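Review form for a predicted model. The reviewer records the input and the model, then writes brief findings.
Reviewer: anonymous (R2)
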Amino acid sequence: MGKKKKEKKVLSRLKRRYRLVILNDQTFEEKWSYRLTGINVLTAISGLAMVLIFIGVVLMSFTPLKQLIPEYPDSAFFEKMVKNAVRLDSIENELAVRDQYIRNLRHILIGDSRTKVEDVHDTVELYSDLDLKPSKDDSLLRRRVELDQQASITSPSKRKTADKISQMNFFPPVKGVVSNTFNHGSGHFGIDIVTEIASPIHAALSGTVISSSWSLKTGHTLQIQHSSNLISVYKHNESLIKEQGDVVSAGETIAFVGNTGEYSSGPHLHFELWHNGLPLNPQNYIDFE
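Model under review:
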């Protein structure tokens, strides 16, 4: 009951009528008058406040006055934001291309010829019906290229390169029985040396480890970059003790003989030598027995 009385009292005050009068201060003559109530005053004040707020929002949203707000970003800031967004997008694309290039290079170095180009999904359906079997002309061309390569071995430059490599002091990675020899025609670009499992594997020459990884096909694999653009590859290891970027000396232990990877059928080391991107027969330079 008390609450209702207070509400009625406030409402009655708002409904009271008042008169706003302007008088001449000297003659007290009435110049202007206006009759109003409390409700009229509240309504007028509320309307005026809403109009002022609306005008302020419009001015701050559609005029340069918004830049007077503390910490409000200016046009130069927005331009930097756009440039940074474009640069970030370019960097992400460059990183994706670089990562894919590194993965493809790693596949090539470990002997896995499968490479992958990402983000080109439409080509799978576009070229799904292509006949990829080598034609007669393609086979003849391949044979001609092989004959040209064999003939070029006897050239002075090739003989000079071969003599230079033969003068290097190679350290046998392991001692054992060569179970599978080098065969370029069948795609076996190295030799398999059978020896006891967990035997230490030594670096054939001094150099820098460019890859220390594991793959499903070749297991634990290590590649070392030597001078004269020569690369040695060690596959199917039980474990690796060197990491990418390590500098090794000739004869230094780098891994242990194992039987890892799907291409391995027993404890052995698969060893390869590559010069200028072409495989070499390791038995021409190293005695493994």
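Findings: DSSP finds six helices and twelve strands in the chain.
Further findings: Residues 117-124 have pLDDT under 50 and may be disordered.
Recommendation: see findings above.
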